[in-house]
Amino acid sequence: MEKSKAMQLVLENGMIFHGQSFGYESPRAGEVVFSTAMVGYPESLTDPSYSGQILVVTYPLIGNYGVPQTGMENGLSIFYESEIIHVNGLVISDYSFEYSHWNANKSLSDWLKENKVPAICGVDTRELTKVIREYGSMKGKLVFPDMPNIDFVDPNKENLVAKVSCNEVIRYGNGSKKIVLVDCGVKHNIIRCFLKRDVTVIRVPWNYDFSTLDYDGLFISNGPGDPEYCEATIDHLRDAIHGEKPIFGICLGNQLLSLAGGASTYKLKYGHRSHNQPVRMVGTNRCFVTSQNHGFAVNNETLGNDWEPLFINLNDGTNEGVRHKTKPFFSTQFHPEASSGPTDTEFLFDEFLNLIDK
Question: Domain Carbamoyl-phosphate synthase small subunit N-terminal, which positions (predicted)?
Answer without folding.
Answer: 5-143
